[in-house]
Specification:
2 domains; Glycoside hydrolase, catalytic domain-containing protein; 30% helix; globular; alpha/beta; 8-stranded mixed β-sheet; TIM Barrel; X8; 13 helices
Length: 439
Amino acid sequence: VVELLKINKITKVKLFDSNPQVLESLSGSNIGVTVGIPNSMLHTLNSSVKAAESWVHDNLTRYLPDRTRIEYIAVGDEPFLQTYGSQFYPFVVGAAINIEAALIRAKLANKVKVVIPCSFDAFQSESGVPSKGHFRSDINKTMISVLKFLSKTQSPFFVSISPFLSYYQNKNISLDFALYKPTAHSHNDSHRSYKNSFELSYDTLITALTVAGFSQIDIVISQIGWPTDGAPNATVSNAEVFTKGLLDHFRSKKGTPLRPRTMPIEIYLHTLLDEDQRNITAGNFERHWGLFTFDGQAKYQVDFDQGTKRLVNAQNVEYLASRWCVVNNNLNISNATAHATEACINADCTALSPGSSCFNLSWPGNVSYAFNSYYQQHDQRADSCDFGGLGMITTVDPSVGNCRFNVELKVSFSDSFHGSNFHHYLVSFVTTILVLQRL
């Protein structure tokens, strides 16, 4: 993964955790890193300065200053997400204050900034116009405390913006408007005209920040992207259109109606690689945000304008043997669907969902897809292609059109991790890549 970052001249990554093997892999790479503190730790860090000092020692001190270039600590993984309710946000500011105190004690406060990632649904406008933007009433008081902390420590405001989810959840947002297409119908707010979903969301945030009294705070878009599978209109072609539109908008430096000629200081594209064990509560598309496939192959070409005109695929990728598990059509397969359903519980069948790349597979092709997904995730063990005797191992690739039957990767650390789990573990943390920085 680190070689993939370097060969594509990607200079910064944002992780959702601080796993030591991931940080060791990034050691000496000169890649700027944002490490994350999971929501499950916020309560402890809020209540104990010693816990914060221990976290800083374990996750920063031994990697700084010369080995791994850690720039930000993200306190929580979007703890204000509305679906979380009040589970986490009461502890966010206290945890951030204690982490900051621990950095000061470790003499690292001038090297590493503490930030608090804000979810796309933390700010809203009931009427849909940016001039009526505000933070959600249940978190407004906490958000003001967050902004006071960030201003005091001169840290930027990290926020995710999701034109895809805005489109997915809002019937008033058209696909063209979400994708930056020039044919999109503009949304008007008094004398201001909005031509795409990003501008609309961004200026809604600007109004919310202004109402809270922090109109000039620097902003980092900590997460933005478009998935390529797992839902209608989550396609490679749409992701390409969206990403190119985002980059063109950023390079134009024209800003937005409320912040003309002022852009976010950084934008992170979500994500680097597909993650086939990611939680799919929000939707099957959650496993398909990657700019690259799970094995490091570029899904489409985009110019980051950072010295590379084309994305470079991962080199020297080692796969397991070219074999797949499919349903044996020579047997009575009337009970195959039940076995496929069971396989999908323990594998990744999101590409079979409506509107996805393998949705048009007819029965029993969809059963074979489920069997193979389970088989690959269990390292092609012979017993993982049984399914009551209905599974059959083949050396003929059953992929059809855009529906790819994957072959799992070989794993370097099989002595430390069971099978392919290390691959999924690493990928689940190396998830977001910097696309551009404001000059």
